[in-house]
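Q: I'm building a small set of examples for a reading group on sequence design. Run inverse folding on the following structure and report the sequence directly after it, with nothing in between.
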């Protein structure tokens, strides 16, 4: 029989030492990573300590929040059924209750009894009503979310209808959001794990006067946001205030810092020098729906219907029918109706001898009529194709002292700057908030492989 020859691989004996070296390297890397995280957390905790839970009760005044915190559900009552009702545009409390077999007398009694506490004629589209009733029997409780901190409770007890306003308690934690634009701001924020409402706040409160987020964005633009997040029972429940933000658009850097006046408690957003971020007019009449500009301001444009050259003193935004159109500044409606070739039109008069026009609408916003006073951002109507139009679009126009100006090129004056007596206090706040805005950059420096 032949002999079996046993050989040993010379390298086999070095396997364990190599594993030990690799394990040591991994352990060292983990220690460094843990140290870096500890340092970062320490900086955030020391410089920006989280707030305690916000107690029930009125909060200081400030900009309205886009995200409404849903009120906690009424404690479970045996044998009660809950119906959640989303308030649709142009609907009233009477409309909603009549569909649930309430008669006119009962509806009138509810509204009149509750009016000293809250006017139910002011319910808003998009909000929620919660109706609790006995199966096949009378209603017992009606709830309505007034805003992010308050909700109305109406009870139908044996001794009559009673109403009260309750306050929502929530915990506020500071947080950071940052990202790079690939196609849209909402897309970049969603990729970073944030909700659409944060994008709306960033546009409507901070940068909507300087950047048209529908048409000015470029791939590679970036943002950093230091924002307060709200939590109910440990669950994320929306955003509170953006404290500081930075947006880089086409190489230009815009910064916004929130400041609350110590005396009046009014809050607003300013640049690093105390100049107001707000201007007379918002940059876009389309409420953040990514339209496409199909025709610009021109003294001689070939008309697609009449086939002749003539002035076009507006900017055409192509967008789907029904896209909301917003007032670009505070003002008074001077005309709302059909206007020949312009179709359904809204005209507004603003301060400093400005006027705006919104043409070819499919319909008008709630309460938009002659004499109505609107705020910048209020809905004046919806994109349509009324009048002489080849497709759904908005023709937006601005007039200054009666003459047309280019909405895309006209330079608007900023609002009043920060009051001088608070400039020193403000600059100290800016220094603190600027450090906060550096946290995302520090994070990416420590962890360059981090991605969204």
């Amino acid at each position: 029989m032949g002999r079996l020859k046993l050989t040993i691989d010379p390298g086999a004996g070095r396997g364990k030492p190599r594993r030990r070296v690799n394990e040591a390297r991994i352990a060292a890397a983990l220690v460094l990573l843990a140290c870096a995280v500890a340092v970062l957390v320490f900086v955030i905790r020391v410089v920006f300590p989280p707030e305690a839970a916000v107690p029930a009760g009125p909060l200081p005044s400030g900009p309205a929040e886009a995200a409404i915190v849903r009120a906690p559900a009424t404690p479970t009552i045996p044998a009660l059924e809950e119906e959640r009702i989303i308030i649709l545009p142009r609907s009233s409390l009477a409309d909603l209750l009549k569909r649930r077999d309430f008669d006119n007398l009962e509806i009138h009694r509810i509204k009149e009894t509750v009016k000293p506490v809250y006017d139910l004629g002011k319910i808003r589209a998009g909000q929620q009503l919660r109706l609790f009733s006995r199966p096949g029997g009378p209603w017992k409780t009606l709830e309505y979310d007034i805003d992010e901190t308050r909700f109305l409770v109406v009870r139908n007890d044996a001794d009559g209808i009673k109403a009260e306003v309750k306050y929502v308690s929530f915990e506020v934690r500071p947080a950071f959001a940052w990202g790079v634009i690939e196609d849209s701001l909402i897309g970049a924020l969603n990729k970073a794990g944030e909700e659409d409402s944060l994008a709306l706040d960033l546009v409507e409160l901070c940068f909507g006067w300087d950047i048209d987020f529908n048409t000015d964005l470029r791939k590679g633009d970036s943002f950093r946001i230091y924002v307060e997040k709200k939590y109910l029972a440990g669950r994320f429940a929306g955003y509170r205030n953006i404290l500081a933000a930075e947006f880089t658009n086409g190489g230009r850097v815009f910064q916004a810092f929130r400041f609350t006046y110590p005396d009046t408690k009014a809050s607003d957003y300013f640049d690093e020098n105390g100049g107001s971020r707000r201007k007379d007019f918002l940059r876009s009449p389309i409420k953040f729906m990514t339209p496409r500009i199909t025709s610009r301001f021109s003294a001689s444009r070939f008309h697609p219907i009449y086939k002749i050259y003539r002035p076009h003193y507006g900017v055409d935004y192509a967008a789907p029918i029904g896209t909301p159109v917003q007032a670009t500044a505070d003002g008074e409606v001077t005309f709302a109706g059909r206007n020949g070739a312009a179709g359904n039109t809204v005209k507004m008069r603003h301060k400093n001898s400005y006027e705006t026009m919104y043409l070819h609408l499919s319909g008008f916003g709630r309460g938009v009529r002659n004499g109505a006073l609107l705020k910048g951002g209020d809905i004046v109507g919806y994109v349509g194709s009324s009048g002489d139009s080849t497709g759904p679009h908005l023709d937006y126009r601005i007039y200054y002292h009666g003459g047309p100006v280019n909405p895309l090129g006209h330079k608007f004056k900023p609002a009043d700057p920060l009051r001088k007596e608070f400039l020193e206090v403000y600059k100290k706040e800016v220094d603190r908030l600027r450090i906060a805005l550096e946290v995302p950059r520090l994070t990416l420096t420590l962890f360059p492989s981090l991605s969204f």
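The chain has three domains: 81-167, 171-279+416-446, 292-405.
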